[in-house]
Amino acid sequence: MANVTSTAAEPERLQLLRVLGPAHIWALGVGIVLVGEYMGWNFSVGKGGMIAGLIACWVAGLLYTCVAMIDSEVTSTVAAAGGQYAQAKHIVGPLMAFNVGLFLVMAYTMLEAANAITVGFLLDTVAGLQGHTGLNQQPFIILAIMFLAWLNYRGVLATLTFNLVITAIAFLAIITLFISVQFGASNVPLDFSAITSDPLPYGWVGIVASLHFGLWYYLGIEGTCQAAEEVRSPARSLPYGTMAGIMTLLIAATMTWYVCSGLIPWEYLGQAGTPLFDAARVTGSTSLMILLFVGTTFATLASANGCINDASRAWFSMGRDRYLPSWFGAVHPVYRTPYRSIVFLVPIALIFALGAPLDQVVTFSILSGLLGYTFMTFNMVMFRNKWPLDTIKRGYVHPFHPLPTIVLLILCSTAYFAVFLGYGTQLSAMMCFYIVASLWFHFRRYQFVRRGDQFTMPWPKPVGY
Amino acid sequence: MAYKPPKQGLAGQIFDVVTLLVLTIGALYIPLYLGLAGAVKVPNPIANPTWEALGQNAAEQQQWAALGITDPAAANDIITARFDYSFSWSALIVMAVLVIGYFVMVVRLSDREYREVIEERFGDKKR
């Protein structure tokens, strides 16, 4: 419970509590992302077929392994709230940091909205199975977001401990389904005949297109470093929690593809709202259905919970640095949480959850994430160039540099093309948004920013400046 | 000498937040309202559909039944729907210019701001 009081330099400023360990970091990362196995990933099967869905799963896994490697090095060195936002501030500059902050807020708020939509859809499906059709989903969407925002408002330790428990249950549900099906618990056999009878319904372009939603398997794992200021030992906990998280997700993603592709016709799977729950339905086992209902509910709640945590930290950090009105940079006097940011983002999440289709919301979240991963590539190169390995102490040094950076850039470029195939308008609208927002920041908002305060790390002057 | 930012009043703070909100919501909803959002998956239903004609084997028929769809006509649209991946090269080039141009612009303007930050933070000190 260290560091709960103000610093000597700024006696009035409250700090976030340093109470989290590696398990919480794992729970934050996996908790946000595990919902990607419960919904959304299957649209990649719809965009390219069964094989394309599996290839997208592994290629996206490679992309996120690069992200985790790069992020672990930079985050273990720039351990500050806001994660990649703080990295951009110290390595690239304020405008890039503002953009990265927006990437994070948009990606997580959209993901939160997608989770709430899924909760509503799942309850509607279950109500339909019980003979109660036409359930009004909106109260459940509102309730889910409001409850989790309240939990976040009350404190980070309780929030992430809650996440740890429900994430573990959701993960165990996937493993249980996988093992049960392997041991014959399903009334309907696994069938992978579509791999040979209809291997690539869209040809090779389908494989590229499917990468769009393949990202959804892992989107948000980089959120682990949002809690950098609340971790007891950032240099150890952040790389350990992040890498453990990506390994967990790779295993869960492959098992999910296997079970769902074997139990659900790919044409249905490609447009399903809750694929793992649907797979449990196909088995005919009531206990598996209940388990996967609980798993889906917990995964969506854990994800939304983590998203509120991360989006509010990014918004809070920008407010604290005056990239946004400083009113948002306040810490609650009792709970030590960024309460104004948490409350402010609630209606935004609701606007998207109540008014936009799931695939649109998912696409906007993916696009913001993708822009963030693109930033990581040149951020990593600039980090090594401005502070070579022997100039500052790093908590973790990732191997094979610059190979992960090059691979990440190639995969990001491919993913842009994948999104363009079918969702080009959204991509263009998103880019226009970020361009206008950047000009607004540079020519208007930046005047309120204290220059020297943007560099707080105890590092030497960067090389070349 | 350190840069002293002007103090922003309440009205200015509200204006800035509203500006960002309008931009954010507009980015998602304008394509939706204009009907330009989302990939259209077009069904190509076949006449007199049977499970066999729809390419579904015995195991897949069982799976459809377990999902609550026993009539092949009800699955006709789902099974036959396909995305259209044809695209215009000019649209692709516009997208590439937007993405690359955006990052170039942000990095260049950031660098200008970053030099001010480093200048103020380090001054003439040699660390």
TrEMBL record, chain A:
Keyword Membrane on entry: yes
GO biological process, one term: transmembrane transport
Major localization listed first in the record, in broad terms: membrane
Subcellular location: Membrane
Keyword Membrane among record annotations: yes
InterPro entries: AA-permease/SLC12A_dom, APC_superfamily
Keywords: Membrane, Transmembrane, Transmembrane helix
Segments crossing the lipid bilayer: 23-43, 49-70, 91-123, 135-153, 160-181, 201-219, 240-266, 286-308, 342-358, 364-383, 403-421, 427-443
Residues covered by the Amino acid permease/ SLC12A domain: 35-427
Membrane topology: Multi-pass membrane protein
Record-level GO cellular component terms: membrane
Domain of life: Bacteria
Name of this protein: Amino acid permease
Gene source species: Aminobacter anthyllidis
Lineage, opening ranks: Bacteria, Pseudomonadati, Pseudomonadota, Alphaproteobacteria, Hyphomicrobiales
From TrEMBL, chain B:
Transmembrane segments: 12-34, 87-107
Keywords associated with the record: Membrane, Transmembrane, Transmembrane helix
Entry protein name: Uncharacterized protein
Biological source species: Aminobacter anthyllidis
